[in-house]
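Hi R.,

As promised on Friday, here is the backbone we talked about, encoded as structure tokens. Could you run it through your design pipeline when you get a chance and send me back a sequence?
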């Protein structure tokens, strides 16, 4: 039987999965856009490597999130837990919720320009309004918060390594995206780049 922490964690995971898949399906069915271009198409080697890294680490994170929510006692036996603290877990769930909210708002704000990965086949619109006024990468900020939220909800060596590797992978993808966007939108993106932080402050 799931306790409150695990029930809330599972609920957040399902909301994340539903919102993510719904956006992909909406773009596919209504606009005929294949928005999941991660590790797809002809791309330069650095992009291919980074996207493969992101694909692997985020998939692993999702699986561990689901498994911990459903089978925490079993998984905790080999995940090298650090501490069991209800306040820390509560903080983790809160950070996870905030991250999920930011991710969903950012995904909606991108409209038909939202992509998973770097799309070399189509020139999308440069979105700079809404939540994108405050961050060039709010969806990735949401992801980073969810990575950290999972670690705080289930503090262990496993979730710490997952948080670190996923934040690193996302940062490397952001750097590749910046190169692509500078080449695609040129002065429009450079102006946005200069006036808006990569995350929020920085």
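Update: got your reply. Pasting your designed sequence below so it's all in one thread:
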């Amino acid at each position: 039987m799931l306790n409150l922490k695990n029930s809330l964690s599972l609920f957040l995971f399902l909301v994340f999965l539903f919102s993510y898949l719904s956006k992909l399906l909406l773009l596919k069915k209504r606009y005929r856009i294949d928005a999941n271009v991660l590790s797809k198409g002809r791309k330069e080697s650095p992009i291919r490597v980074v996207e493969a890294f992101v694909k692997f680490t985020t998939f692993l994170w999702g699986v561990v999130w689901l498994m911990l929510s459903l089978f925490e006692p079993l998984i905790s036996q080999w995940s090298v837990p650090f501490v069991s603290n209800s306040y820390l877990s509560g903080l983790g769930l809160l950070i996870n919720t905030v991250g999920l909210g930011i991710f969903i708002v950012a995904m909606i704000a991108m409209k038909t320009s939202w992509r998973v990965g770097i799309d070399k086949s189509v020139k999308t619109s440069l979105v700079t309004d809404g939540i994108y006024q405050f961050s060039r990468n709010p969806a990735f900020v949401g992801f980073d918060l969810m990575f950290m939220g999972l670690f705080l909800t289930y503090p262990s060596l496993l979730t710490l390594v997952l948080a670190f590797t996923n934040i690193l992978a996302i940062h490397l993808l952001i750097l590749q995206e910046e190169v692509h966007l500078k080449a695609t939108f040129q002065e429009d993106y450079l102006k946005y780049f200069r006036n808006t932080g990569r995350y929020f402050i920085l």
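One thing I noticed while checking it: The chain has six helices and no strands.

Thanks again,
M.
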